């Protein structure tokens, strides 16, 4: 299975096998996954080729999980330079992942709701009239 990566990556790097990514490692954890210095301390769970090709020095990711607990993706931060990542930043990334999933769940619910029904606890609004 191949998945698209973050916006802004060069040609040939925008789609890679998930098993080659740091996000695949993050999906295994309930906690935020952090690699503060990938240059000196690479991840042993994946092939380091992609990390070296992207010249990644830093990675932090938190799994996006369904209400049933299934991981469906990762909200991550990457950088070329190694850096520290505080506990407060880790907690913020986890909260942002929760917000992403809440918005995603709401959008899916709204898209599947019959016309005229409420969506995500808000009353439906009529569609604008065509001119």
TrEMBL record:
Coiled coil: none
Residues annotated as domain GAF: 17-101
Pfam family, one: GAF
SUPFAM superfamilies per the UniProt record, alphabetical: GAF domain-like (SSF55781)
Domain of life: Bacteria
PANTHER family listed in its UniProt record: GAF DOMAIN-CONTAINING PROTEIN, SLR1143 PROTEIN
Name of the protein: GAF domain-containing protein
Organism of origin: Hymenobacter nivis
């Amino acid at each position: 299975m191949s998945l698209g990566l973050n916006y802004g990556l060069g040609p040939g790097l925008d789609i890679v096998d998930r098993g080659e990514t740091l996000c695949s490692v993050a999906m295994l954890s309930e906690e935020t996954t952090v690699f503060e210095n990938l240059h000196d301390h690479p991840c042993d769970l994946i092939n380091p080729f992609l990390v070296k090709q992207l010249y990644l020095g830093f990675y932090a990711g938190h799994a996006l999980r369904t209400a049933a607990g299934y991981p469906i993706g990762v909200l991550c931060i990457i950088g070329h330079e190694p850096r520290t990542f505080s506990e407060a930043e880790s907690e913020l990334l986890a909260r942002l992942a929760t917000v992403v999933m809440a918005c995603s769940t709401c959008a899916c619910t709204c898209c599947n709701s019959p016309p005229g029904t409420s969506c995500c606890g808000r009353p439906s609004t009529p569609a604008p009239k065509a001119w």
